[in-house]
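User:
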Amino acid sequence: RDLTEAERITVNLGGDVPTVAPGGIANTGIAVQFAQLSSSRQSDAPAPPPETFGAYTKKGAKNTGVIGMIDLLIQDLDKDMTEGKTDEEHAQANYEALMADSAAKRGQDAKSLAQKQLAKAGLEGDLAEYADGKAAASSELTATLKYIQSVHSDCDWLLQYFDVRKEARAQEVDQLK
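Assistant: Predicted structure:
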């Protein structure tokens, strides 16, 4: 049989001549061609496998099985209990320090409150004294203003009738002569 151009290229690249299935696919007359190409890569050795964690070593008999797992659980439990104790001791120490600081703060606050109450009582006493002094001064001022008003009205009367009284005196002096 004659080779087609595609078959010649396949042969030139080192492949086998395609085989035609008898009668095509399901006797439809459609030819199926299988081509196999060979390349220079196939003759090379395969690439080495990727690196792993190292060579496999079997664990000792002590670490295998149920007993080894129980030993690991015991170790983990001991470690957790030790950490728990340490954490509890630190937490207790922090709590006691907080309570001591709080007690000292409450004592200082109580002293400060007592001092402020004493200062407030002293200021309220001073305020009461100043209020009494103001009331006394206000009544004295009112009395002084009334006195000034009465003196002022007397002066106004004297000034208003000064000329009349002067004439009356002058006439009286003239009559006595």
